[in-house]
TrEMBL record:
This is N-acetyltransferase domain-containing protein. It comes from the Bacteria. SUPFAM superfamilies: Acyl-CoA N-acyltransferases (Nat). InterPro entries: Acyl_CoA_acyltransferase.
Length: 141
């Protein structure tokens, strides 16, 4: 039943929101940024994403990883709609295609203020298969 609910929520998100991915190769890493915009909002230069992820493919402790530097849904109006869940599933999918583990640090806070404490945030990521390895969370392909 959870799979059906997740699929329906993803269809809803894809219908109402537009995902843009920006990938840039640097000298020693690849920056991969994800932005969710309201689909029917007029696109202006000042238009801000309603949810975003900044990630980097790089070497970390001798291993090539897909590092999530930041994932946020800044506005309280856009929370509890599954947008963060949708983005983390997109990241996991892109990392799996490249056979890379996803690495992140559960650090609450950000632009919109802390929604979760560290323990709640760690539990939220564990729902997507992340496990603690030292002071970081890792999802292996």
């Amino acid at each position: 039943m959870d799979i059906i609910r997740r699929a329906l929520r993803d269809i809803w998100i894809v219908f109402w929101y537009r995902l843009e991915t920006d990938e840039r190769k640097n000298s020693d890493c690849i920056d991969v940024d994800y932005f969710l915009y309201k689909r029917w909002q007029k696109k202006l230069e000042q238009q801000r994403s309603i949810a975003f992820v900044f990630a980097t493919i790089k070497d970390f402790n001798g291993e090539r990883v897909f590092m999530v530097d930041e994932l946020q849904v800044p506005s309280k109006l856009n929370r509890d709609k599954g947008l963060g869940s949708y983005l983390i599933r997109q990241i996991i999918g892109h990392a799996a295609k490249r056979q890379l583990p996803v690495v992140l640090f559960a650090d609450p806070g950000g632009i919109g203020g802390a929604r979760f404490n560290k323990e709640d945030l760690t539990n939220w990521y564990s729902r997507y298969g992340f496990r603690k390895e030292g002071n970081k969370l890792v999802k292996r392909p």
